[in-house]
Design goal:
The complex is a heterodimer of chains A (126) and B (111). Helices cover 0% and strands 56% of the residues of chain A. Chain A has no helices and 11 strands. Chain A has strands at 3-7, 11-12, 18-25, 34-41, 48-53, 59-61, 69-74, 79-84, 93-105, 108-116, 120-124. In chain A, strands 2, 4, 5, 6, 9, 10 and 11 form a 7-stranded mixed sheet that branches. Chain A is globular. Chain B contains no helices and 9 strands. In chain B, strand 5 and strand 6 (71-76) form a beta hairpin. In chain B, 0% of the residues lie in helices and 44% in strands. The chains are: A mainly beta (126), B mainly beta (111).
């Protein structure tokens, strides 16, 4: 059974960089046909996808966050990471990491998040 | 505002059936597959439906998904109090650079 666990500071100061790591257990991060993603949820609001990465380093990013986001993968540690720069209070949210099944077929893109971490609350405040 | 439009809330009595709609466009739902997620209070989202209408192992057949054109629908039959949760649709959007989009979420109340 695949398990994901987010880790990182729960408090980040405005204008600084938010850094989180997701550790994967019960499976290899280098599995083909799967991506790994970050999704966030501000308190009381809906889900917002941040970006996804393949073990080779290929990435997809949310266009609205792309200028501030870097997602990387460390296959030797079975981890992938998120960096979000120049944070403001609007970046306060529960951040989830997730495993994403993904393929491109004649029917279009087929991507879905089937395993999720428990989430970690990151508050941006001075 | 979300790219995908869901009703903010729906309600029904135990044992009844409810549907939740998710409306998009040709750049997202119209040409890509849809997934649905259930989020119980204080927990991470859980995949209910993928590839428009497929259920992961362990998801009861009370949950169903369908897609027609630029809209998708989640159906739940035999409602239980434990189904009270937020439900989100998700898909890919192929406008500009490809990216994932979610609906704004629908709060299901089981009366």
């Amino acid at each position: 059974q695949l398990q994901l666990q987010e880790s990182g500071p729960g408090l980040v100061k405005p204008s600084e960089t938010l850094s989180l790591t997701c550790t994967v257990s019960g499976g290899s991060i280098s599995s083909s046909s799967y991506y790994w993603g970050w999704i966030r949820q501000p308190p009381g609001k809906g889900l917002e996808w941040i970006g996804s990465i393949y073990y080779s380093g290929s990435t997809y990013y949310n266009p609205s966050l792309k200028s501030r986001v870097t997602i990387s993968v460390d296959t030797s540690k079975n981890q992938f990471s998120l960096k979000l720069s120049s944070v403001t209070a609007a970046d306060t949210a529960v951040y989830y990491c997730a495993h994403m099944g993904y393929m491109i077929t004649f029917g279009g893109r087929n991507g879905y998040f089937d395993y999720w971490g428990q989430g970690t609350l990151v508050t941006v405040s001075s | 505002q979300s790219v995908l439009t869901q009703p903010p809330s729906v309600s029904a009595a135990p044992g009844q059936k409810v549907t939740i709609s998710c409306s998009g466009s040709s750049s997202n739902i119209g040409n890509n597959y849809v997934s649905w997620y259930q989020q119980l209070p204080g927990t991470a989202p859980k995949l209910l439906i993928y590839e428009n209408n497929k259920r992961p192992s362990g998801i009861p057949d009370r949950f169903s998904g369908s897609k027609s054109g630029t809209s998708a629908t989640l159906g739940i039959t035999g409602l239980q109090t434990g189904d009270e949760a937020d439900y989100y649709c998700g898909t890919w959007d192929s406008s500009l650079s490809a990216h994932v989009v979610f609906g704004g979420g629908t709060k299901l109340t089981v009366l």
